[in-house]
Amino acid sequence: MLTSVDTDVIRVLGDPLRLKIVTLLAQETLCTTHLVEETGAKQTNLSNHLKVLREAGLVETEPCGRFTYYKLCPDVLAGLSEQFAALAESARTAAENKRACP
Question: Residue 9, exposed/middle/buried by CB under 10 A (0-12, 13-18, 19+)?
Fold first, then answer.
């Protein structure tokens, strides 16, 4: 069953810009400057979205001089993937179960 933490992560990933950020970070660790270039978002807007992703546990920061790099936390996504796989398996099993109407 999905927990409240899982549903929070799903909600966070429901934003198109955040999903794009996560998709980019799945390919490589990037700094804010790279993410601004790749997404076309304003730096302040991007920083707000990165804060939400950090608070949800989806990304970690890595300071490097005057830059901050962001990397994806794959375990959070893997856990969510396992939950969806379990739901899919349950749906396959329950496909024949039909509750009678009163």
Answer: buried
